Amino acid sequence: MKKGSKFSNIYLIFVFFILYAPVFYLMLYSFNSGETMSHFEGFTLKWYKELLGDTRLLIIVLNTVIIALLSATFSTIIGVIGALGISYVKKVRMKRALLSFNNVLIVSPDVIIGASFLIMFTIIGIKLGFMSVLISHIAFSVPIVVLMVLPKVQEMSPTLLDAARDLGASSWDVLSKVVLPYITPGIFAGFFMALTYSLDDFAVTFFVTGNGFSTLSVEIYSLARRGISLNINALSTLLFLFTMLLVIGYYFINQRYGRSGSMGVRK
Fold this sequence. Notes:
This protein is an all-alpha fold. It has a single domain (55-266), classed as MetI-like fold, CATH 1.10.3720.10. It has 12 helices and no strands. The longest helix is centred in the last third of the chain and has 37 residues, at 230-266. The relative contact order is 0.12.
C-alpha cells in the first residue's frame, strides 16, 4: 500500500508538472526585460505597463468580462430550469432523450458549433458582434449548467418536498425555500463553470465575432499570429490569474454552503 501510494504521489506530481510547467514558463517570461523567450535578461514590468496603457485592449478585456458575466447569468437561469424540468420527467426514455439532446453541444466539435452559429446568424440576419457572441456563449454554457445542477436535484429526497407540502407550503415556497437552497452548490458550480468556459472559449467566438468587436482569446490569437511578443505572455498571465481567482472563489463559496447545508441537516 505504501509503495502504491508513493508511486501515485510521484505520478500526480509528474502530471501536474507537465500541465503547469508551460504556464509558469510563460508567466516567468512576462517579466523578462528582453524581447524574446530564449533568454531571461532581467526583471521588468514594462509589458504589463504597455497592456494597462493600451485603451483598445482594455475595451476588449471589458467586452470579455461583460460577455462572460451575462452569458453565465442567463445560462445559469436557463440551466437550472432545464435541470428541474428533466428531473421531473417520469418516463425514463424521455429523460434519456432530453439528456442526450443536452449533451450534443458538449460532445460536438467547437468548429462545427461555431460554423453552425455563423450560418444561423447569417440566415436570420443577426449582425456579428456583441449579440452573436453572447447568444453563442449562452447556448454552449446551458448544457454545462444542467450537468452541474442535475445531480444535486436528483440526490434531493422526495420526502423533503412532501414534508414541505404537508406543512402548507405552496409550490412557489417549495421551490424558493426548499429546492433552490438545497441545489445552491450546484448552481454556483454551474455559474462558475459557465463563466470560465466563456472566458476561455476561442473556437466558437472566432466564428461569430464581427469587425469592431473582439474578446481576449481572439485577441491573443491575433497577437500571436503577428509574431512573438511578450505582450502575449503578460496578457495570458493576467487571464490565467483571473481564472484561478474564480476557481478559488468557487472553492470557498462551495465550502461555505457545504458547511451550512450540513449544519442544517444536523438541526
